[in-house]
Amino acid sequence: MPEVRVVGTAGHVDHGKSTLVLALTGRDPDRFAEEKRRGLTIDLGFAWTTLPSGREVGFVDVPGHERFVHNMLAGVGQLDACVFVVAANEGWMPQSEEHLRILELLGGDRGVIALTKVDIVDAETVELARLELEERLAGTQLAGAPVVEMAATKGEGIDDLRAVLDSVLDTVPGAVDRGRPRLWVDRAFSLRGPGTVVTGTLSGGRLARDVEVEVVPGGARARVRSVQTHETSRPEGLPGTRTALNLAGLSVGEVPRGTAVVRPGQWVRSAVVDAEVTVLPSAPDAIGRRGAFLLHVGTAEVEVKVRPAGGAIAPGASGFVRLRLPHTFALQPGDRFVIRDTGRAMTVGGGRVLDVAPPRRGLLARLPALATRAQALSLGPSALVAARLAEGPARRERLPAELGITEEEAAGAGHIEVGGHAISTVALDDAADRLVAALVRYHDDHHLDEGMPRPLALSVLGLPSAALDMLAAKGLVMARGAVVSLPGHSVSFDAGEQENVDRVLDVVRSSGPAPPEASSLPAGRDLLEAMVKQGLLEPVGPFLYDASVFRGMAAAAREAASVEGGVTVSRLREVLGITRKHAVPVAEALDQRKVTVRRGDARFPGPTIP
Ligand SMILES: Nc1nc2c(ncn2[C@@H]2O[C@H](COP(=O)(O)OP(=O)(O)OP(=O)(O)O)[C@@H](O)[C@H]2O)c(=O)[nH]1
Ligand SMILES: [Mg+2]
Asked: Are residues 199 and 229 in the same domain?
């Protein structure tokens, strides 16, 4: 199959764009009766031809009239190159400038300049027009682009244009296939028989017959019944080609221009995105919180609220903004857009989407992170992953959609996966260092505690719970139940405390099965609790028993309970040689520890053997 590319026209009204497309392709791109009657393009037109190299080129012909810039914008988002048309008799005009800027904002930096209507001016005027072109294009993305002189109505210059276009396209890299197809719909119509058909320039991946697709916004599902490129049936649409899809199970109204056809589940649906914006030097005002703007992204045109992350962005300057859209779109980092001022009906700027799932708060604090993301976009997928994870862990399965990358790219080096999260190894190492340092301090400050409460440890770590368990599994920390500590840490007593510990042990050991209440023991609560955690004391109701004394009592009680009919509290009193004051709490403590089980007034042996 030959290589297939997409080329768009651009330029001021009446400068000869459609005439040139007709001459190149044999097809009049002006589809509507009104266009033919007025000799004016209103909406996008489509045609195609085969260049001398054998490569097929689909053309998107745009209107030049200032009132139809919004239609032009729907056609030039995904071009391999442009034919930038300037009529020799009129020279550079307002929409020459505006279209040039729009192409620049959308990343359209390859093209051919068609200097048209050279047949109706003299040689000197052609020369002047060439000089003016050189001046206007200097410093722009089309500076130095080849210029072809044309008299399209007479067929002059057409062969030159074909050859030059071929050589320009030789230098344009082919469309990428990330397995994430998206077709921004630029036309939707219904045919008797097949039903709903949409067209657009496919990008990001292939769309084959019979696959299920989803329309965003709206969420309608459909099956691709058939695929065409340049009116020829194909088993699948390829990225970077004009593609028509016949969609089964969908009405035309569900897929208007501005919707995108995608595979279900591959896209973050975002109505709020963070982006990088450049304000054109020609813009009358800075872009700030005020002003009514329209956003053009893909083939969509929607009202947008623009909130700069720093101050307002002055004409000629760039900055970071948060964009709020009226509904969700299938967007990804790197998507380019144009912003127009609604009141003045002029293009004021544009830029690139950086984050389609931004955190709700802290836009100002995000400035450095957004700058990193902007850099990462030019560096590629692994830089994007690194930039994302530098901001915190991410749900692993969301990474491809969030960043617009493939599964393989999302699985790259530089991060590890824990409990469904992707965490940067640098961030994990930093967090682990932070936690260890915090534990050292904590053990110092709380030497009677076994360790730091787990929720506190997690907040120090700043990572999902699974990351803490992973650090514990690696032996870096101990995470037992509700407490996190350094490996080998145990409660220790200082000299003064040890004295009190010994005194307490003396008291409880000498009083055997009938110790005094805890409140009368010669030590504070903290120390007694620590002795319990250490396993020296056993809490039983209001009493603290020496642990080994209590173990002995438990064994005796369990044995007494193993007779037919079990053991009652009053029998237990006799067996253990204690009064009711101690016998009741002891019996309850034994039930709690499942050394005994209570049925009615009697106790029987439980599953725990003391
Ligand atoms: N003599 C001469 N006339 C031309 C040439 N190219 C276009 N025209 C005429 O200029 C007029 C406008 O041409 P179009 O091709 O409709 O111009 P356009 O740029 O498509 O205009 P819009 O789509 O409305 O922006 C038509 O009458 C054409 O016949 C040319 O190279 N020489
Ligand atoms: Mg036209």
From this structure: yes
User: Model confidence over 527-536: pLDDT tens digits?
Assistant: 898 888 888 9
Cα of 211 to ligand 1 centre, how many Å? 42
Contacts 24+ apart (CB under 8 A), 422-430: 422/385, 422/389, 422/393, 422/394, 422/395, 422/396, 423/389, 423/393, 423/463, 423/464, 423/467, 424/386, 424/389, 424/390, 426/390, 427/389, 427/390, 427/392, 427/393, 427/463, 428/463, 428/467
> Which tokens go with 9?
């026209």
Burial of 90 (0-12, 13-18, 19+ CB in 10 A): middle
Atom number of ligand 1 nearest to Cα 157: 31
Tokens found for residue 513 = 């099965």
Residue of the CA atom closest to atom 8 of ligand 1: 16
Domain that holds residue 440: 426-485
8 A C-beta contact, residue 585 and residue 593: no
| Nearest ligand to the CA atom of 30 | 2
Match 């071929």 to its residue by tokens. Answer: 166
pLDDT higher than threshold 80 for residue 1: no
Choice from 9, 18, 37, 86 to test ligand 1 binding pocket (greatest atom count within 8 A of CB) = 18
Name the residue with the closest Cα to ligand 1, atom 24: 40
**72 C-alpha to ligand 1 centroid (Å):** 17
Residue 253 lies in a domain: yes
Are 601 and 511 members of one domain?
yes
Residue 38 Cα to ligand 1 middle (Å): 12
**Does 120 contact ligand 1 (Cβ within 6 A)?**
yes
Q: Is the CB of 99 under 6 A from ligand 1?
A: no
- Residue identifier of the C-alpha nearest atom 21 of ligand 1: 14
Whether 153 lines ligand 1, by a CB cut-off of 6 Å, is: yes
Number of domains in the chain: 5
The pLDDT tens digits of the residues spanning 205-248 come to 999 999 999 999 999 999 999 999 999 999 999 999 999 999 99
**How far is residue 371's CA from residue 42's CA, in Å, rounded to a whole number?**
39
Distance 43 CA to ligand 2 centre (A): 9
> What's the mean pLDDT when you consider all of the chain?
93
Interatomic CA distance for residues 188 and 116, integer angstroms = 32
Q: Under a CB-based contact definition with an 8 Å cutoff, are residues 62 and 46 in contact? A: no
Q: Distance, CA 148 to ligand 1 centroid (Å)?
A: 16
- Ligand 1 in reach of 21 Cβ (< 6 A): no
Question: Distance from the CA of 108 to the center of ligand 2, in angstroms?
Answer: 20
Q: For ligand 1, atom 12, name the residue with the nearest CA.
A: 14
- Closest-CA residue, ligand 1 atom 13, reads 16
Q: What six digits make up the tokens of 326? A: 């009226």
Look at residue 417 and tell me if it is in a domain.
no
| CATH number of 302's domain | 2.40.30.10
Same structural domain, 77 and 92: yes
Record the tokens describing residue 338, joined without a space: 């144009």
Gap between the Cα atoms of 245 and 225, Å rounded: 7
Phi, psi at residue 394, to the nearest 5°?
-130, 150
Using one digit for the tens of pLDDT, what is the confidence trace for 71-94?
A: 999 999 999 999 999 999 999 999
Query: 206-232 burial, b for 16+ CB within 10 Å, e for fewer?
Result: bbebebebbbbbbebebebbbbbbbee
CA of 338 to the centre of ligand 2 (A): 22
Q: Which atom of ligand 1 is nearest to the CA of 65?
A: 25
CATH of the domain at 517: 1.10.10.10
Measured distance CA(94)–CA(100) in Å, rounded: 10
